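Lecture 7 notes: from sequence to structure.
We start with the chain below.
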Amino acid sequence: SATAVQSSSATAQASINTRTFRCVVVDMMGHHIGYVHMVDTSGKLSELDNAHTSDHLPLGEGILDLDAIIDALWPYAGHLPYWSLDFYACHDAERTGRESLQILREKVQRKM
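Predicted structure tokens for the same chain:
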């Protein structure tokens, strides 16, 4: 899954699996996380913009293991005032955003 974590000292972005994400990114940089930016994707490049980015899908429709990512981030980022969801080039972005936000809210509520 494509995952980006921006910290106060560095930005780590890579196509990595959830176990690697937790072991490498969260465990090493967790205390520096100041912002979470989530994108679910099929893992393929977008057909738009000459394939300069991955395709962006509604949460739960791509390869992102949302439960595992939230579990890994929660001790470090659960207190953050906001997380961003990215729907660049999604068809019907307004509907996609509402549905994805509801999915994220439900998962976060279970953590609280």
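Points to note: The beta strands are 2-7, 11-15, 33-38, 84-85. Residues 93-111 form the longest helix (19 residues).
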